[in-house]
Amino acid sequence: MHVLLQDIRYALRQLNRSRGFAVVAVLTLALGIGANTAIFSVIDSILLEPLPFPHQDRLMQLAAGTDYYNYPKGWIREYQRRSHSFASISGYSLNAEYNVTGGGTTGRAFGSTVSTNLFETLGVRPALGRSFSSAEETTGQDREIILSNGFWKDQFGGDPGVVGRTMMLDGVNREIIGVAPPQIHFPDSETQFWIPVAFKAGDAVDPWAIFGYQAIGRLRDGVTPGRAQAELRSLHREMLTLFPWRMPDNWAAEVNVAPLLKSIVGDVRPRLLLLSGAVGLVLLIACANVANLMLARAAVRQREISVRSALGADTGRLIRQMLTESAVLAAISGFLGVLLAAMSLNALKLVLPLDTPRLANLGLHGGVFLFAIGASLLTGVLSGLVPALQAGRKDLQGSLRLNSGNVFGNARRFRVSQLLVVGQIALAVVVITAAGVMLRSLYRLANTDPGFHAEQTLTAQISLDRSACTQKGSCLAFFNALLTRAEGLPGVDSAALVDALPMTGYDTWYVFDAEGHPRDPRQLALEASSRTVSPSYFPLMGLRLLRGRLLNGDDQSGTSRAILVNAAEANQLWPNQDPIGKHVADVGKQETTPAVMDMNTASIVVGVVSDTRHESLDKDSGWETYLPITPQTEKPVMNVLLRSRIGSAALAANLRDLVQQLNPAVPVTKVRTLRSVVVSSTAAPRSLTLLLTAFGALALVVGGIGVYSLISYTVSWRTREIGLRLALGANRLQIAELVLRQSLGLAVLGSALGMAGAVAVTRLMGRFLFETSPLDPLTYAIVPVLFCLLALMAAWSPARRAANVDPMVALRND
Fold first, then answer.
1. For residue 190, which of 271, 119, 98 has the smallest C-alpha distance?
2. Is residue 594's pLDDT more than 60?
3. 147, 192 in Cβ contact below 8 A?
4. What is the full DSSP assignment across 38-54?
5. Are 193 and 151 in contact (CB under 8 A)?
């Protein structure tokens, strides 16, 4: 320990004497360590940090591969009753929005409808009050609510007396019976409250009518996921017989039991691992750069090292001293790197998509600090090992000879520096090529036609209470009045209504049978995305009518039974046929599956419109069905679209005033432009591309510094040689060309090696690319040219310095 402290003090003195070297080395390593620590903090927070539930390894999602079944609530209740592998099984709905009034709060809030035993399944108890009881799952006795801790603090000021008070949810008074612990966010971070699922007493259809719930379960002690999965699959056949109607034999047959954490993370893991690999390469580049700087510095210190060796220091002692210096550099860099990572977390939250799972959990946890320490130690070894081994080689006579500083810079030692720079360039080429391919993919994605007009259109969500549509036609009347008056707002060219905006992820599904496609009741029905729209939706969005007619005002009565389909659906269902007049039957609204479609009640296709990319820009057009707003299809929540020539802020204010005049209790939320909705749909590829590009730029800068450092070092080392060349007749242009050629040769070799590595890496990125080849020719052509230009720029200043060497001064120093 005494020797170690002595080495550390000596290392600090040496770094203080070479402040320029120390600053460059520390900043280079700090950037590499900081970038790696920041990305690891994301990985740790999302993939590694345990869920805030006891024995999380026993919490399982009951899913079909990566897709989750939407179960009816009766199915989940029967799972709970019949399964012996699970201590408990619960259902929950994904977040829905509610109008909230009372208790000191008004507006819209997100909540989940859950089984009464959800908190038992999760293994948590409310921080205040109690959880739901089984008696509260009966309709009429389900008027309770549990608040999230954040919602309680925001809306009730953290008042501990909130239990027992009431608040109104979509016109229904509910008693607050509990407040969840602070760390509980389920099913996601937006959840602000939970209400119990309700069953209608004596109603045989109610438990099976709505397929809107997902399921989780807690395994019993000693039960494996495989055993539980096998049990649930064995129950499948008898469970199907519980439906009041015949269900397809293969519905929910292949249920998978997967860890809850894995299901929550979803497809984020591959993107994070790609970023981790890219930022890891940046750290290697930084290590190689600092190793080169230390080699150059060791050349200056060779006389000192030789004197110490002559006085009795053995090779191991010299190597330890050099490694101690690199470790001290790495420790200082690691400290600064953690500070940089902490400062970058808010920026990462802005860059990452808002729907990134567990994003609210992002922070520097204990594992992150351990990673930073490990990265710093590894960095110290990687950046200091080669210089330490080189310094340990003894050449006492040559090193102690007068003017022997240049003896240290022999060709063998110089080759090591060249290899390090070539490695830096190769690694940087891999990162930049990956970023370039992603940029090309994002460019094509951003310029993809969504199939509808998104410019100059403002959207807003108008939300009535869920009970507003109890009287048939009441919601339809409100929205028709809103639409009529919105069309008269100043600057508005047209207005329309739709229940679900495209590219927001809130599509509803139309489950149907189609004329000409008879279905065995044991098989699954057809599915299409559906939108309930006003007739003005099609011209406002720019959807082209391909056949038949568009919806009109007469269709809102429901007597025409008119629907529209898109071209993709029409072409696949009725190829080489006229789809106009074909019938489709909404299976989701039938309590039984008839053997023959009832043409008198089935909907009639009256038109075919052009396709849109309604899920996201990177997904092809799927089947899409358009329904008119009728008393049978009316919904309490609709989105209004306003195409206008005036600014969004003024238009939004006018819209709020209009809704206030119609009904002061109706909130106007999610006010945004349709263009922003389209842009948001590309958030995941944009964030990935932005971060890869940032790491590529960092690799480019560090690589450029490496080239500059090496060329500067070699020019200094070859000063006498350059002076001799000039004295023997070489002109200064030839000297500059010699230096530039050396730099260009390193860039060419590094680019060639990097391109080989980039081929392997970009092939693994195929799943992230949109209409772009992993071997994109333009990217692969530009990147080597970029690095050759970088090498020439980095060598320009050393080349000028070499060309300006005074041969008399250089030779006199010899």
1. 98
2. no
3. yes
4. HHHHHHIIIIISPPSST
5. yes
Q: Tell me the pLDDT band of 806, cut-offs 50, 70 and 90.
A: low
- Count helices and strands (H / E) in the chain: 25, 23
Q: Which of 222, 178, 153, 245 is nearest to 595 (CA)?
A: 245
Q: Hey, CA dihedral for 595, 601, 607, 609, is it positive or negative?
A: negative
DSSP state, residue 67: B
CB-based burial, 308-342: b 16+ in 10 Å, e otherwise: ebeeebeeeebbbbbbbbbbbbbbbbbebbbebbb
Task: Look at strands 105-114 and 193-196 and give their pairing.
Answer: parallel
What's the CA dihedral at 57, 63, 64, 67 to 10 degrees? -110
Lowest mean pLDDT among 217-221, 671-675, 679-683: 679-683
For CA atoms 740, 745, 748, 754, the dihedral sign is negative
Helices (H), 447-503: 474-486
DSSP codes of every residue in 649-693: HHHHHHHHHHHHHH-TT--EEEEEEHHHHHHHTTHHHHHHHHHHH
Strand partners, 178: 129, 146
CA 123 to chain centre: 29
Integer CA distances (angstroms), 600 to 271, 504, 583, in order: 51, 35, 9
Cβ atoms 567, 546 nearer than 8 A: yes
Distance CA 649, CA 632 (A): 35
Q: What are the structure tokens assigned to 690, written together?
A: 């932005």
- Select the more confidently predicted residue: 690 or 415: 690
Number of C-beta neighbours around residue 624 at 10 A: 25
Q: Three-state SS string across 196-240, please?
A: ECCECCCCCCHHHHCEEEEEEEEECCCCCHHHHHHHHHHHHHHHH
CB contact set of 427 (below 8 Å; sequence gap of 6+): 281, 284, 285, 288, 699, 703, 754, 757
Is a pLDDT exceeding 60 seen at residue 631?
yes
Give Cα 296 distance to the centre of its chain: 42
Contact between 513 and 584 under an 8 Å Cβ cutoff? The reply is yes
Residue 636 · residue 475 · CB < 8 Å: yes
- Centre a 10 Å sphere on the Cβ of residue 417 and count the other Cβ atoms it contains: 27
Assess contact for 511 and 593: CB atoms under 8 A: no
In order of 119, 464, 635, the CA distances from 474 in angstroms are 37, 10, 10
What would the 3-class secondary structure string for 528-560 be? EEEEEECCCHHHHHCCCEEEECCCCHHHHHCCC
Q: How far apart are CA 553 and CA 534, in angstroms?
A: 8
Compute the residue count for the chain: 814
Burial grade of 752 (CB within 10 A; 0-12, 13-18, 19 or more): middle
Instruction: State the pTM of this model.
Output: 0.81
β-partners of residue 583 are 604
Structure tokens at 359: 């994003």
b/e burial code for range 648-665 (CB count within 10 A of at least 16 → b): beebbebbeebbeeeeee
At 321-377, the pLDDT tens digits run: 777 777 888 888 888 989 998 988 888 888 888 878 888 888 888 888 888 888 888
